[in-house]
Write a structure and sequence with these properties.
mainly beta, 79 residues
Length: 79
């Protein structure tokens, strides 16, 4: 049985809760469910004046863009 994941139903402008999994030079990787991750790009963090996110931190995010071909989800922080 193939189960549905968030990837199958996610939409732009959707607000979700996630957990910061890793910080990279290019941004923060956020775990949205068991199989779905999104990225808060470093430019987005700078724009929001967010200087530090920690691995394991819960965050409320909004989907800004989905690239289904590349399986990428782009996020912003909801403050």
């Amino acid at each position: 049985i193939i189960r549905e994941t968030l990837w199958d139903t996610i939409e732009e402008n959707q607000v979700l809760e996630g957990i910061v999994k890793d910080m990279k030079v290019f941004g923060a990787l956020v775990q949205l469910d068991d199989e779905t991750r999104g990225l808060i790009h470093s430019n987005e963090l700078k724009k929001l004046n967010i200087t530090e996110l920690k691995s394991g931190q819960k965050v409320k995010v909004k989907v800004t863009d989905i690239n289904r071909g590349d399986r990428k989800i782009y996020l912003t922080i909801v403050q």
